[in-house]
């Protein structure tokens, strides 16, 4: 069985790329402000290797011994500077694979909903490696997101936002897909 990945420290299995993926549990937060805008980060073009910009919610991997909720709170602080946020229910999960430094990573994400008052995002607390791929952040209105030609993580994010904004959360988290 592969060791859990710790990208920040660069500590991960030395298995070749074609072997079993290294599991990485992660938490992401769908952070809405008081104007129902969703905070998303854009992956730098050179990191994304995609034809279109890719936007994703704040979040990341769990530290050793950390719960998903603890990771969600820590990631919000690191990536936005917001210290006090109540993390709500887990609404989705997804698993996806990507390459990182020549290793195949299988990230197993849980998505939580949180609300906050409007604030200016401060990225001073981000990990050094995050600056290499997080190019910018933006608050998105649901309508803007639905009309955009950019790509979003998860891909069907725009389709599921109206229910979340209306406070309609699933009874159980469901697989949101890629």
Structure description:
- The chain is of the alpha/beta class.
- The protein is built from 5 helices and 9 strands; from the N terminus they run E-E-H-E-E-H-E-E-H-E-H-E-H-E.
- A hairpin with a 2-residue loop joins strand 5 and strand 6 (103-115).
- The radius of gyration is 16 Å and the shape is globular.
What is the CATH H-level superfamily? Nucleoside Triphosphate Pyrophosphohydrolase
Top-tier CATH class: Alpha Beta
Using the CA coordinates, give the radius of gyration. Answer: 16 Å
Mean pLDDT: 85
Provide the low-confidence segments as ranges. 1-16
**What is the ordering of alpha helices and beta strands?**
EEHEEHEEHEHEHE
What summary fits the major beta sheet? 5 strands, mixed
Proportion in helices = 10-25%
Count of the domains: 1
CATH architecture: Alpha-Beta Complex
Distance between the termini: 24 Å
Secondary-structure class: alpha/beta
User: What percent strand?
Assistant: 25-35%
